[in-house]
Specification:
single chain, alpha/beta, Rossmann fold, DNA polymerase, domain 1, 2 domains, six-stranded parallel sheet, 11% strand, binds 6-O-phosphono-beta-D-glucopyranose, binds magnesium ion, phosphoprotein, isomerase, beta-phosphoglucomutase activity
Length: 214
């Protein structure tokens, strides 16, 4: 019997080549606020939701803003981001992303999305992979964002899988913590010295094969 009933995917940096686009949009906003973000700051923002990311950036710059000002700034960043992804097509998928989804489905496992991004549903349609995904966990519908386990638990619930029989795939430190605290098996996409809590790490999505985990 296979070890898993479902695979729960993060989107940005796992299926979509958009992690660097989020960071570019934050850097642009940061410059406008006089806050310079070093490249290493990207790791701290990965997987962190929009308002949480803005809070980290403002704290980094020692800058205070009211709740209303923060809403305007977060909207501005989202405008930069959505403009940058507006022309994305299936050619912009990360290498191997479509093949991985197809292999997981062919193995008889459910596929769910556990992305912090409110932009996920339209992006999935643009990338042509929406029909390969059984359920999308809505980040607005859970209590706490990553690194809390809520979003991965919601994704598992939507496809009727128990956490112990779910494999979560993530490129972020925050996301790997969510998966582990949800009681699931975590595969990191990236660097094992960064994604230290992952059970397994593969360098890129292209090197992930579900057959290695069944
Ligand atoms: C995550 C990204 O997938 O989504 C973060 O890793 C981003 O960088 C978060 O902040 C929220 O995205 P959005 O599209 O709702 O602003
Ligand atoms: Mg990610």
């Amino acid at each position: 019997m296979p070890r898993f009933d479902a695979v729960l995917f993060d989107l940005d940096g796992v299926l979509a080549d958009t992690a660097h686009i989020h960071f570019a949009a934050w850097r642009r906003l940061g410059e406008e606020l006089g806050i310079h973000l070093e490249p290493a700051f990207e790791e701290k923002l990965k997987g962190v939701d929009r308002m949480g990311s803005l809070d980290l950036i403002l704290a980094q710059g020692g800058v205070q803003r009211t709740a209303e000002e923060k809403r305007v700034l977060a909207d501005r960043k989202n405008g930069y981001y959505t403009a940058a992804i507006a022309e994305q097509t299936p050619d912009d998928l990360l290498p191997g992303a479509r093949r991985v989804l197809e292999e997981v489905r062919a193995a008889g496992l459910k596929v769910a999305l556990a992305s912090a991004s409110r932009n996920a549903p339209p992006l999935l349609r643009q990338l042509g992979i929406a029909p390969l995904i059984d359920a999308i966990a809505d980040p607005a519908a859970v209590k706490a964002p990553k690194p809390a386990p809520d979003l991965f638990l919601e994704a598992a619930r939507l496809v009727g899988a128990v956490p112990e029989r779910c494999l979560g795939i993530e490129d972020s430190v925050a996301g790997i913590i969510s998966i582990k605290d949800a009681g699931m098996v975590a595969v990191g996409i990236g660097d094992p010295t960064v994604l230290t809590r992952a059970d397994y790490v593969v360098p890129t999505t292209e090197q992930f094969h579900i057959g290695d985990f069944l």
